[in-house]
Amino acid sequence: MGDAVVDVWVRDTSVERVPSPGVDDAGALDEHERERWARFVDAPAARSYLALHLLARSQIGTLLGRPPESLRFDRTCPDCDRQHGRPLLVDDPGLHLSLSRSGCVVALALSRSGPVGIDVEQVEAARFEGFEGVALHARERGAVAGAPSRAPSGAASWVRKEAALKALGVGLRVDPTPFVTPRPGVPTEIVPGMQWPAVGGGEAPPGRAPRVTGRSSPGCRRTSSSATRAPT
Predict the structure, then answer these.
(1) Alpha helix locations (H) across the chain?
(2) Which of 102, 125, 126, 168 suits a disulfide with 155, CB 3.0-4.6 Å?
(3) Distance between CA atoms of residues 75 and 85, nearest Å
(4) What is the C-alpha to C-alpha distance for residues 152 and 121, in angstroms, rounded to an integer?
(5) Cα distance between residue 67 and residue 3, in whole Å
(6) What is the pTM for the complete model shown?
(7) 56, 45, 84, 132 alpha-carbon torsion, rounded to 10°
(8) H or E element: which one contains 83?
């Protein structure tokens, strides 16, 4: 990622203290976040959502020297104008952020070097039948199915692709199958005509997630993660 600086935080909500749904400990959230949190039926999902947004507000507030509850975000979707798009910090547009959660793991990336994307995924979630056809380029499908190759595993491939699409601001509105998984540190064309993002992170050794994502734990399945920066 060149001279870019991307700060990454990862939390395992199964082992770290997070307020439980129903407890009035969400005062730092804005109205949109509180409403979405309250709609969760699954308690672990509600817990991870709350943990991620409290983490983002805490770290950004510390960085800017402001109370977490004072931060304002614009999440306008470019397709429908509803508030479910990529969050932008209204009071400091030069600070770029990206959020991700999967199961009990949540991740946050912050950067002033340019737009950034982060993704985290449970390894098992990329092992369903038909995954290759909806996530991987044709040249990668044999490798993931077992052919000798240096191609990343299914989960590692998925998080790199989604992180790259997040950094470009298009997310999964763009089909991830037409492009090959970016290699760490190598700017790659993802969407024709758009900037070439550079992916960080990598595959995990047994029992661990990549360096930027912390570690797995007994309370959570092994995860894979990637952070990506789009050049300015």
Answers:
(1) 31-39, 43-64, 131-135, 138-145, 154-167
(2) 126
(3) 5
(4) 14
(5) 30
(6) 0.82
(7) 110
(8) strand 83-89
| Rounded to 5°, angle at Cα 102 from 96 and 107 | 30
Whether 103 and 122 have beta carbons less than 8 Å apart is answered as yes
| Residue 64: both structure tokens together | 């800017």
Tell me which residue has tokens 């995990």: 204
Assigned fold of 6-229: Ribosomal Protein L22; Chain A (3.90.470)
Locate tokens 């991740």: which residue? 107
pLDDT < 50 stretches in the chain: 1-2, 20-23, 147-151, 202-222
Say how far apart CA 43 and CA 32 lie, in whole Å.
Answer: 19
Sign of the alpha-carbon torsion through 215, 52, 115, 122: positive
Distance CA 43, CA 141 (A): 35
DSSP state of 81: -
What are the tens digits of pLDDT across the range 18-29? 554 444 567 889
pLDDT of residue 198: 86
Q: What is the structure's pLDDT at 75?
A: 92
